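Progress note, sequence design subtask.
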């Protein structure tokens, strides 16, 4: 019986998680921390691209960025998710681009 090879962090691809958001103050913290708490060794960044939220979404994300520098807040003046995704794709550093919902 062959033993399964365990992967080191060097064998795993880097990942960018992209979260377009708008007025998600009730959910955005839980979503971000859900990814942070996975402890994936090659999580390159979590990009949150906000489409002009009028609630506390931006403040919550800014607070998280203070403690977790891999979380980055971007602004989407066009407001639509497709524009947010294009902005995040341009900035993404990870080998894998994972899009996630903000709720």
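Output:
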């Amino acid at each position: 019986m062959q033993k399964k090879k365990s992967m080191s962090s060097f064998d795993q691809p880097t990942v960018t998680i992209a979260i377009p958001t708008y007025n998600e103050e009730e959910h955005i913290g839980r979503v971000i921390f859900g990814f942070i708490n996975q402890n994936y060794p090659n999580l390159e960044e979590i990009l949150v691209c906000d489409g002009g939220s009028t609630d506390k979404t931006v403040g919550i994300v800014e607070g998280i960025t203070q403690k977790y520098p891999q979380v980055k807040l971007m602004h989407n003046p066009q407001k639509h998710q497709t524009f947010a995704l294009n902005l995040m794709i341009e900035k993404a550093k990870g080998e894998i681009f994972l899009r996630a919902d903000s709720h």
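DSSP finds three helices and four strands in the chain. Work on this subtask will continue into the next period as scheduled.
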